[in-house]
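ESCALATION

Customer reports they have been waiting on this structure for their group meeting. Please prioritize. Original submission:
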Amino acid sequence: MATDAGMLVMWDPKRFEAVADYDTWEDELLEDEDIVRHIRAGALVPLNVGGDGAFGVLVRSGTADAPARLTDRETAHQLVASQPYLFVARGRALVGGIEDVSADGSDDVIECLVPEGRHTVIVHLIDWQAEPGSQGEDGRPVPGALPDFVVLINPAQPSQGAYRTAVQTFEAPNG
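Update from on-call: job pushed to the front of the queue and completed.
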């Protein structure tokens, strides 16, 4: 996934059916307060580290009986995990640059089937470069390298308290 607008996102395409061009996109997503409104509604989850670039993204969806989890390999290289975000699915989610948000996305987005309902989403930032053999001579990831982000989607639990609503996905380090 790549973004030239500084942020990757996962979104419910049905919530953005009115976005058909730059003007309608701008009305919905130009300012941080617009983005926060969609985060609070469970329509959008940021994968935001504050910069442009190309990133590997893996989305894993679980069920109440078999929740999505990190693999041992992913856990060994996890840098940080977000607090839970709310995602209200209507059958599918799209992932791409924030500039791609619309009902259909673009050719550069990935589509994930997500059962209808309320879900908890946790975004994990992975230090894929720390794994021996993950990079080729050119510094790029080799086939089978870990992604930059692992996004875990699980059914929301009734006991879940508040959800994260920040545009920045991860807490700033102390210090």
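Sent to customer with the following note: The first strand starts at residue 2 and ends at 3.
Escalation resolved.
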